[in-house]
Structure to design on (822 residues):
């Protein structure tokens, strides 16, 4: 459970830092009159806050999967899977997808409607290609006779890639709606925000994928072993 | 010495309110059924939660009938008994308490108390309720499938939960239970995002975090915890579904069942326990923190006194929320873990008693020399303090490894957690309903029926759970449908069990008085007016009662002070509402 505990510790530090700026030391029974954000617009749009909170939840979910992975891995029946070369290619495609969406953000900020459309479509298609690539990796495992229930390493591989793929699919629904909006009219503040949110989500899922890749390829376990040897 | 007497402040002219995009309902369906108004969603959540809670209440009667009078009722087979305890526990903890506190009270109170027109994402909020309803329906469906619902205990421990010896284990029961939980978590995440973002972004002008009523602090912190804790249950449920349906071995060790080697092998049941309790322990505080918050407001309002140590109360809520994530393994002392591990978790468990005790002291000190009105909400709040302290004290026993080991899986544990997270939060729910019902409906709940309901529930709950501690101390294990004829258990236990059963039936029927009151007062209750309890918080200052869609009419209130200015010298009434600048009124009375 160490992964999730570390994850929550980081969140707790962030929350503590944020709370420390919210006047937790104030004495509300002495302070009357209007204080606080009078007349100020909220600094961040609600959608952005919601996305950050949601990403914390998704982060907790994958941290818990990683915790379970490490605990299950220590049992004797674990046989690691070889890393398929397709995964390297898929990683590249997902990086491309993330980069495309970042371009979309830049385009939206400069109000370049055509570049925005191009970047959004590129991001969407490359994400779909990533999913197809993941399915291909599954196919490859099938062909090798590595089925879901054969070994816990296999089970985790299918489970984690599947879970990550589902999150990408959910993102694609949002991306499709944003793309449709980009086709409908000019680039507005609203559209810019939607694009930025999509890009944030994509970067986060790319980051999660890096984590999963490191985990599934076994480097995370090697790294922990090295740390352990250094400590003992 | 600082003069803390609240005085007048310069009122601020209402600024231009930005045009709010409210979804205005056009038909009966969008107004009352597919409504995006948080208040309607709150009532839908509460109604559904109470309805499924009644099912759990009936299940508890059936269990008690079996324990009190074993062998009398033929239809309560051991299998059925296991199904009753499982469904009773799961429904009460998740589908009643969590849904009612966060989905019900959270939806109703957060926007009103922070001065918002609605939740920030009304559509997602509506979706949250419908997914919750779907989760409840899937859960109910498991009663009607062949083999019935799962009977493996609410903790769903593998491997027994999916074996053929467990009721529902090889049928559809366990699958429906897991699917229902997964749906609940998805639905809750949608609602939870709303509650958190509304508190962060939806507050009206002047409503700093440190001016929020403690109710909002409690619900807010509990929601944050739930958002981070429910994923653990989600992971556990998904992996269990894989084990059950696809034959993986995440949790399932190699097993021989009825002389037959199963295809599972190598899995770790302990892994499941870690995941489950990583959710399970924060869950206790997910239920308790909203109760803490609500009870603080009830006590302050009905004792006409400002809350003692507001700052400390807020800090304690946050501290409890954070600490509750590092105590989970105290549910697993008997799982064979490393003794130092147990030592660590016993320490964190006992540390959590400190902020909790701070809260209890502050409630008592709020009451001290207060102008206590023994209204029904106040009676429930007082009953909560007593019950929570009682339940918490037995928690100190169970939190220590050496004491817990012999008491583990006895009725003592059952008595402990029913006191602390069953009876105590439910007393708060009742108090809160008596308190806010006038705002929701415009009419007061009937006082006589309320007194009857309170006294039977309060004394009855003690009649049920106090003796249960003794039953546990003599070694009666939990989850056994029939312990008669066991050599080490004295005959007197049977008498006590019969007594507990009678008390449980009476308390259960007293709840019918409450339900009747809810409907009767809707029509015949006394007109309440806008602010019958003379409370300071914003929900009582709405122009209309019940509040209309959009809550506050044309202009949002401006907050000038904290939520606890009661018994103010010189004020026209004895309190200053949060949106009251205080000037003209105070001058008028002088």
């Amino acid at each position: 459970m160490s992964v999730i505990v570390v994850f929550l510790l980081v969140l707790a530090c962030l929350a503590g830092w944020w709370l420390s700026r919210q006047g937790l030391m104030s004495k509300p029974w002495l302070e009357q009159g209007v204080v606080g954000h009078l007349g100020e617009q909220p600094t961040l749009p609600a959608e952005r806050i919601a996305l950050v909170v949601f990403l914390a939840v998704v982060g907790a979910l994958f941290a818990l999967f990683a915790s379970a992975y490490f605990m299950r891995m220590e049992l004797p029946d674990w046989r690691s899977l070889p890393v398929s070369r397709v995964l390297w290619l898929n990683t590249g495609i997902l990086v491309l997808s993330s980069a495309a969406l970042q371009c979309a953000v830049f385009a939206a900020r400069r109000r370049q409607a055509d570049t925005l459309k191009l970047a959004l479509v590129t991001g969407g298609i490359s994400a779909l290609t990533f999913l197809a690539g993941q399915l291909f990796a599954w196919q490859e495992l099938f062909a090798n006779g590595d089925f879901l229930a054969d070994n816990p390493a296999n089970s985790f591989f299918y489970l984690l890639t599947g879970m990550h793929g589902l999150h990408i699919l959910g993102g694609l629904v949002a991306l499709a709606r944003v793309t449709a909006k980009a086709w409908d009219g000019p680039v507005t503040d609203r559209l810019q925000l939607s694009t930025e949110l999509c890009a944030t989500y994509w970067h986060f899922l790319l980051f999660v994928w890096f984590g999963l890749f490191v985990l599934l390829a076994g480097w995370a376990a090697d790294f922990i072993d090295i740390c352990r040897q250094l400590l003992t | 010495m600082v003069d803390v007497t609240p005085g007048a402040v310069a009122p601020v002219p209402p600024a231009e309110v930005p045009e709010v995009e409210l979804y205005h309902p056009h038909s009966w369906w969008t107004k009352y059924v597919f409504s995006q108004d948080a208040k309607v969603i709150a009532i839908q959540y509460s109604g559904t939660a109470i309805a499924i809670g009644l099912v759990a209440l009936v299940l508890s009667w059936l269990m008690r009938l079996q324990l009190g009078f074993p062998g009398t009722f033929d239809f309560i087979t051991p299998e059925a008994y296991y199904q009753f305890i499982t469904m009773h526990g799961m429904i009460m903890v998740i589908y009643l308490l969590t849904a009612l506190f966060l989905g019900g009270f959270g939806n109703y109170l957060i926007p009103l108390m922070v001065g918002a027109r609605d939740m920030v994402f009304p559509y997602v909020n509506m979706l949250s309720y419908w997914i919750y309803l779907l989760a409840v329906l899937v859960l109910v469906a498991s009663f009607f499938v062949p083999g019935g619902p799962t009977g493996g205990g609410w903790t769903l421990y593998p491997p027994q939960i999916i074996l053929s010896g467990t009721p529902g284990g090889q049928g559809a029961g366990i699958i429906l239970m897991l699917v229902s939980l997964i749906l609940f978590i998805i639905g809750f995440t949608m609602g939870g995002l709303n509650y958190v973002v509304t508190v962060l972004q939806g507050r009206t002008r002047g409503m700093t975090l440190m001016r929020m009523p403690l109710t909002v602090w409690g619900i807010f912190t509990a929601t944050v915890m739930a958002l981070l804790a429910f994923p653990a249950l989600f992971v556990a449920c998904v992996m269990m579904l894989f084990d059950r349906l696809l034959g993986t071995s995440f949790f399932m060790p190699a097993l021989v069942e009825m002389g037959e080697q199963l295809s599972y092998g190598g899995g770790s049941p302990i892994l499941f326990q870690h995941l489950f309790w990583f959710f399970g322990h924060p869950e206790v505080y997910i239920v308790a923190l909203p109760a803490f918050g609500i009870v603080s407001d009830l006590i302050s309002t009905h004792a006409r006194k400002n809350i003692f140590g507001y700052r400390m109360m807020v800090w304690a809520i946050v501290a409890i929320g954070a600490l509750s994530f590092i105590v989970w393994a105290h549910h697993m002392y008997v799982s064979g873990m490393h003794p130092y591990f147990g030592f660590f978790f016993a320490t964190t468990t006992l540390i959590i008693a400190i902020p909790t005790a701070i809260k209890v002291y502050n409630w008592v000190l709020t009451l001290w020399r207060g102008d206590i009105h023994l209204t029904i909400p106040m009676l429930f709040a007082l009953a909560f303090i007593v019950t929570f302290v009682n339940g918490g004290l037995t928690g100190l026993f169970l939190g220590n490894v050496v004491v817990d080991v012999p008491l583990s899986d006895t009725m003592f544990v059952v008595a402990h957690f029913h006191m602390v997270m069953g009876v105590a939060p439910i007393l708060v729910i009742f108090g809160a309903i008596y308190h806010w019902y006038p705002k929701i409906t415009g009419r007061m709940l009937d006082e006589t029926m309320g007194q009857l309901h309170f006294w039977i529930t309060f004394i009855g709950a003690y009649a049920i759970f106090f003796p249960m501690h003794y039953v546990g101390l003599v070694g009666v294990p939990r989850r056994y449908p029939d312990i008669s004829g066991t050599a080490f258990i004295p005959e007197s236990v049977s008498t006590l069990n019969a007594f507990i059963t009678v008390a449980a039936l009476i308390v259960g029927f007293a709840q019918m008085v409450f339900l009747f009151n809810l409907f009767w007062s809707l029509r015949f209750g006394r007109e309440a007016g806008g602010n019958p309890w003379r409370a300071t918080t914003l929900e009582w200052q709405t122009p209309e009662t019940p509040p209309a869609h959009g809550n506050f009419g044309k202009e949002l209130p401006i907050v000038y002070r904290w939520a606890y200015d009661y018994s103010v010298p010189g004020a026209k009434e004895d309190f200053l509402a949060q949106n009251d600048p205080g000037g003209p009124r105070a001058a008028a009375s002088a």
User: Anything to note?
Assistant: The first helix of chain B runs from residue 28 to 33.
